[in-house]
Amino acid sequence: MRHFPQSDRPLKIAVVGTGIAGLSAAWLLSKRHEVTVFEADDRVGGHSHTVYAGGVPVDTGFIVYNEVSYPNLTALFTHLDVPTKASEMSFAVSMDGGKLEYAGTNLAGLFAQRSNLASPRFWSMLRDLVRFYRQAPDGVRDLDPSASLNDYLDSAGFGRAFREDHLYPMAAAIWSTPALEIGNYPALSFVRFCENHGLLKFVRRPIWRTVDGGSRAYVERLTASFRDRIRTGTPVRAIRRVNGAVEISAGGAEAEWFDHVVISAHADQALGMLADRSPREAELLSTFTYGDNETVLHRDETLMPSRRRVWASWNYLAQSGRDRTAVRKPCVTYWMNRLQGISDLRPCFVTLSPLHAPAEDKVIWRGLYQHPLFNAATLAAQKQLWSLQGEANTWFCGSYFGSGFHEDAIQAGLAVGETLGGNMRPWSVEGESDRIFRTLQGA
Q1: Do residues 196 and 405 make contact, with C-beta atoms less than 8 angstroms apart?
Q2: Which of 54, 78, 102, 413 could tie 24 with a disulfide, CB 3.0–4.6 Å?
Q3: Does pTM top 0.90 for this prediction?
Q4: 97 located within any domain
Q5: What is the DSSP string of 288-354?
Q6: How far is CA 48 from the centre of its chain?
Q7: Residues 293, 353: contact at Cβ < 8 Å?
Q8: pLDDT tens digits along 386-403
Q9: SS3 state at 417
Q10: How many whole angstroms separate alpha carbon 302 and alpha carbon 350?
Q11: Same domain membership, residue 121 and residue 29
Q12: Average per-residue pLDDT in the chain?
């Protein structure tokens, strides 16, 4: 078992990447050590990206959280006095331009399309939905850890209507993953995630919240103590580990030396930076792949369900044929007026992978986000990721350590900050590292 005794002197530490994983690690490390943060983009925050639409701050990546499923993020917001407010979470599906539409908010939403009342397929979906919510938590407990969601659904006899019209669209919207690829996700991990986020409850679901003023408000508070140590527009070209030190080549400047490096970029990006990667680093990091999602902030209502009564906070749109299979990235439109409490006088939407281009005169901002894709192989790799920590004075963190969300990323970042830096997070929460596989080795 490897241990990391604390140095008597402040360490010189490079942090690569300014998503929540890198920022939380840098924030904790900077309390005791000399930290330099490298960011390839011209802004700080990663998926925490607030854009102004007509003077109103609107988030385009990280939008909502809840206090039950995001304990460390909640504690961070409390510690930094970040202003938050309640949000409204609801989900709608719109297939084939409105041939099938429903919202899961209430009976009025479920049957906003009157023909659903007489649709055997729709009633089959509802029956399986109720059965899945009730049976899945116990049904997956005895499964082999490598069993996929499809394996469980097949063995339990869940039908196509439930999969194609509800479960896969809902999960695709959550993970920004093509719908039928969801079936490859490990069943046990999938159901545990749904349980942890209150998605299998009919009543008493957790209250979702959003940052008042946009996620930029928490990024500004989090970076206040080390803002002068962040170098934006400075992509890291190469990382080399030599004689117990780390050489960083970034931007157009000469290489610099550090005692340690924390790489909080995506797994594939981290691997690409390592000029002298070890076989173990290559084996584990190469397991993770990412999907690109074109993201558009706009005011075009044609990228919402055709029936206004179906409009929800999250709206999954698809066409039949290939769009209902694994090959197409999900089109998901977030109704930001509802999610962030923005006045309804001017509609404001964020759409991932639009089915069609929004009207150009209604586009406010375009961008690209990447999300990790998960399967049995990535789950197996996650269980071994922590064994890389500290080898050749190199550390890794990111949302890929868990389920790909903000809480996963902050747990990984804080765990690295504590293990390397010697300072503990200034709060105590139940299950502080339960979204990642943080082993005793190196801890």
Answers
A1: no
A2: 413
A3: yes
A4: yes
A5: -EEEEEEEEEE--GGGS-SSGGG--SEEEEE-SGGGGSTTS--EEEEEHHHHHT--TTS--EEEES-
A6: 10
A7: yes
A8: 999 999 999 999 999 999
A9: helix
A10: 12
A11: no
A12: 93
